[in-house]
Amino acid sequence: MKLAGIDIGTTSICAVVLDTESNKMVHCVTEPNRSKIPSSEPYAVLQDPNRIWSKVEELLNGILIRHQDVLGIGVSGQMHGILYVDREGNAVSPLYTWQDGRGNLTMQSGGTYATSLQQLTGHPVASGYGLVTHYYHVVNQTVPAEAVRLCTIGDFVVMKMTGCTSPLMDATNAAGIGLFQRGGFDVDALRAAGLQEEMLPPIVASATRAGTCVIPGATRATRAAMTPSGIPVFTAIGDNQASFLGAVPSLRGTLLVNIGTGAQLSVWSQESWMAPGFEERPFLGNGSLHVGASLGGGKSYALLERFFRDVCRVFTGVETENLYELMEELAQDAGETDHPLVVDPQFFGTRMDAAKRGTISNISESNFTPEGLLSAWINGMAAELWGMYQSIPSEARAGIIRFVGSGNGIQRNAALRRAIEWHFGMPLNLSDYGEEAAVGAALCAGVGSQAFPDFHAAGMALRKD
Q1: For residues 406 and 258, is the Cβ–Cβ distance under 8 A?
Q2: Are residues 128 and 164 in the same domain?
Q3: CA 425 to chain centre
Q4: Could you tell me how far CA 463 lies from the centroid of its own chain?
Q5: Which candidate, 209, 213, 306, 358, has a CA 20 to 30 Å from the CA of 270?
Q6: 382-430: per-residue pLDDT in tens?
């Protein structure tokens, strides 16, 4: 059996095909997500949902031409962000991504939109959460007149893929936009904030069949490859949960560190617990994913790379395309020192404190060098994750028996892997396959199509020997 998975990330869009008989990934294509919409508003981080859908169509055509026995398609997408759709399912707004900062703007009454929504509802939310963005638009009367629903980018793509006109939403995405409680959205909280429940899609169980793949732009070859009954498409899931499912050898007892554009520590559990900086998110099927999320991660490392490029340009007049490989070499050569630089990489704030900023300290004549700064930067990124881990209750930490790393920030940065291992004091095993979120989406399709009895079995299905 072959299963297809699509992941719509902030910076890239990926399509994979898994063969459950050979236990192999037989197709993997990753393309840049070039859908960013320029804005004169410095807080706005927007993408074009129609451009994203066009890229997904292209990737799907490529899959279905080459693999004529795909029996299910799953989708995962960047969490928290939303867009608005009309009665025909057309996008009537940009995608307001998880990085969008309008929730941190100050209201006329004082305080930010995010803190105001927290006070009105009692729910911990942050700027970039979909219902914080929606609350901003409701207060300022800027919800598009044609809008009848809001949804995530994953929900939008599934709707387009199946030719439907109204989105469905999995609980993993619902929790990501805020004001969610077990069983559904908190209706009392919505009313307290003046938000209409009718704007939100119906919530369905994970791996619910959303419809049959009817790609409007399919080529003749793609249509010929599709089975007469069509290929089932399943509701989109959150990329955090998808990445966990696609990365770990077992849901139980695994700590996953994922570094992409952001960074997260994730632990699955059937027990409920609280920790500073952690959220309890619904997982697929049952249990919860406890997630400590950094707003930095790969963004922090990209900030340093951009700084090095700017230095080269200012002093040499030469535009350098990419310095990541050189930075990796520099990090390999960086020696230890008794008095290293200290970097706190929270340059983009935190979920709990949007105003917090990073620092560089303990500067001396001997350590203020490019390699010293790079080494301290990497060490600071690892230390931030270690601090999150330390806040996990001791009884929950006691059940962790394996440590897995995923995401391009982990896969491509050996120096960062070493720093993480040093801080955590245990070996970091890379996930068996890259593009973990797309793999998790495909495994979700496997549960929906009954190739696997549940998500625990799906997670163990494609492990390498």
Answers
A1: yes
A2: yes
A3: 26
A4: 22
A5: 209
A6: 999 999 999 999 999 999 999 999 888 888 889 999 999 999 999 999 9
